[in-house]
UniProtKB/TrEMBL annotation:
Residues 1-27 form the signal peptide. Residues 30-111 form the Bifunctional inhibitor/plant lipid transfer protein/seed storage helical domain. InterPro entries: Bifun_inhib/LTP/seed_sf (IPR036312), Bifunc_inhib/LTP/seed_store (IPR016140), Plant_nsLTP (IPR000528). This is Non-specific lipid-transfer protein. SMART domains: AAI. Plant non-specific lipid-transfer proteins transfer phospholipids as well as galactolipids across membranes. May play a role in wax or cutin deposition in the cell walls of expanding epidermal cells and certain secretory tissues.
Length: 113
């Protein structure tokens, strides 16, 4: 009986460890969101065309922000307005990088919707 209870305790501990490792990750920070788009800065300011590194960063951000789109939306909206991003280029970015978004990029977007 001692062997079975010892085995059971090990299984319970193992299950607890696995469940801890499967816990949801923390939300993406505003700084991290902006870092993903750093390769896009020349495009977003209207200084050059779209680049592969820009699209890679934007695609990675789209994946990383799935669980926290509201916060990322608020962050990028504020950054775009304060940095005078070329809004036409920002609107084109998802299509040019083949990213499907459930919303349109625009300066008056409601991030709470």
């Amino acid at each position: 009986m001692g062997y079975n209870s010892s085995c059971l305790v090990r299984l319970v501990v193992l299950a607890m460890i696995i469940s801890c490792n499967l816990a949801p990750t923390t939300a993406i920070s505003c700084t991290e969101a902006i870092e993903y788009l750093m390769p896009c800065q020349t495009f977003l300011f209207g200084w050059s065309g779209i680049t592969a590194p820009c699209c890679q960063g934007a695609q990675s951000l789209a994946i990383a922000s799935l669980s926290d789109r509201k916060s990322v939306c608020q962050c990028l909206k504020q950054a775009a307005l304060s940095l005078n991003v070329n809004l036409d280029n920002a609107k084109q970015l998802p299509a040019l990088c083949k990213i499907s978004l459930p919303f349109e990029i625009r300066p008056d977007i409601d991030c709470n919707a």
